[in-house]
Amino acid sequence: MKGTILLLVAVFAAAALVVVPARADDDVRVSATVSPATVSVGEQVMLTIQVQGKFRRSVSPELPPLDDFDMFEAGTSQSFSFVNGQASSSITFNYVLVPRNEGTFLIEPIRFTVSNKQYNANPVTVTVVAAASGVTAPPAAATPDATPPGDLPGSDESIFVAASVSADTVYVNQQITWTLGYYTDGRVELLRSPNYSPPAAEGFWVEDLPPQNKYYANLHGRQYLVSEIKRGYFPTAPGVYTIGEARVDLVVDDVRSRGSVNDFFSRGLRGGFGQQRTLQTDPIQVVVLPLPGRGKPSGFEGAVVSNLTVSTAVDKQVVQVGEPVNVSVEMSGIGNMRTLIPPALDKLNEFKVYESGSSTDSFKKDYVVSGRRKFDFVLVPQAEGRFTIPPVSVAYFDPVKGSYAVAKSIPVPLEVKPGTPEDARKLVYAGGGDDFRVINRDIRFIHSPPANLTVASPPFYASRLFVVLQALPALAVAASLVIERRRRRLRSDLGLARASRALRDADRRIAGAAKAFGAGRRDDGFSLLQGAVLGYFADRMNVPQAAVTSSDIDAYLDKRGVDTEVAAAVGRVVAACNVARYAAGAAESVDGSALAAQARGALAAVEKVLR
């Protein structure tokens, strides 16, 4: 009888193991959406596939044939939740579709398989209309500074870089817009963000020109997603100069099969750290012309700008003799305003003139550098009367027009009234009262005796503080020995040194990302934030940052016993950065500042466990 009962218990237990997963599979829900549902030829459509339910393994959706679209992966995000002891997952797959032809296209139900059971998403429809009149599809493909298609590699390249300049012959201090184009057709999967190294450029003043420009271009009959980085180069002297090679370091997935759509989180099951590749541009030679000698006005001090304006302002127009007046001379124009020198204030014989400082503000609208240079002066009038601060003249060379010009401010009137004689200086109590003059200094004050007698304090050498201070040198020597021993250990153990500063370096990068988000530079912010998280785990694992993937992070956290919620939070930050950086238009939906705070909290929680 006892054996029969044990047999029944075993049978029911086995049945439970089979039935429970089946019920979990029944909870899986797959949905598909497109945004927008109506677009023009060459515009982008975001296809989002969301899978929710109780499943453990990360699998990929099976997409139907999409012959009428060019498709690009735009990132994957995954989240976990625990409610009443039940675990559930949610995976979102994002794809960018670029329609090739007009018409109404039905995207067949997308399949998703869990435990050998197939689930279908709802079909979605995309309506494609003709491109608007006067608009060339794809948009922004005809960027003025973009590299000419004839200079690009052949059609067999899936990913490449090319550099170009807005002009190869310029004047001294004239802006050259250098553009790096990063081209990818989506056939190559990257395991981390590309690492860009700018070119060396001796003889130039360099300005970065954010933000990055992204668009689609059709080259050799193939659709490419193009990401552009621009920089402004200002040559400092005439001659022939070279803008060197720019380098982009990549880590390509050497396991993932081309043309297939695999899950972002399942790579760790297959192993591999990727193949490192380096893409490099060609150097570009630039001819810098000297400024012409013909037509150079007198007083020219080397200013090379366009549309220069000069204005003069004072803080008050009615003063007394000896009362200082603050004068500001502001110059605005297009170009490198930092090269402008302080102007001369002429014909001010009745004033003492002092320079009190300067400031420069730079602007980078539409990838053109402009700015405002402000010079501050203090004028001290020496005589009464009605005076005029004469116009401030600045001679400059306009490189766009190729000619010299003079910018002038308008005169500023100033009235100086009689002042108080210098020998009638008075001392006034801060609290008010009658004024009094200092007559002489030969009277010594009478010091009254103390009202009470006090006990004299013991000498300092007899106090406890003196004894404690005597021990400080010995404590300092001991502390220095401990510090030196740790420094030697850090120098000999690279892994320990990297691990000890991992969180500090990550905090610095996250702070930079938060600052970039606050300034509106979202692309820079997501790049810094992703580098902070990946760099932290690279330092902790003592491996190159280029070799760190999301699956490696998951495995490391699991091995070190980090809570699953914390690990999931780290994964969400990395996935969100990938979506924001590589999904066109998706960055606007991500709150960068909140994501930076989440990253800081997740890394702090990880650090507590690893210590």
Question: What does the model show?
Answer:
The protein is an alpha+beta fold and 611 residues long. It folds into four domains: 26-129, Sandwich (Immunoglobulin-like); 149-289, Immunoglobulins (Immunoglobulin-like, Sandwich); 310-417, Immunoglobulin-like (Sandwich), CATH 2.60.40; 494-610. Helices cover 24% and strands 36% of the residues. It has eight helices and 29 strands. The chain has a four-stranded antiparallel β-sheet with strand order 1-3-5-4. A hairpin with a 2-residue loop joins strand 14 (204-219) and strand 15 (222-235). Helix 2 crosses helix 3 and helix 3 crosses helix 5 (522-541).
The CATH H-level superfamily of the largest domain is Immunoglobulins
Number of domains: 4
The largest beta-sheet arranges its strands as 1-3-5-4
First-residue to last-residue Cα separation: 56 Å
Low-confidence regions: 4-25, 133-150, 257-271, 421-442, 449-455
Q: In percent, how helical is the residue content?
A: 10-25%
Question: Mind telling me the C-alpha Rg?
Answer: 35 Å
* Overall CATH architecture of the largest domain: Sandwich
Net shape: extended
In the CATH hierarchy, the third-tier topology of the largest domain is known as Immunoglobulin-like
Q: Overall mean pLDDT score?
A: 78
Number of helices: 8
Most strands sheet:
4 strands, antiparallel
By DSSP, the count of extended strands is: 29
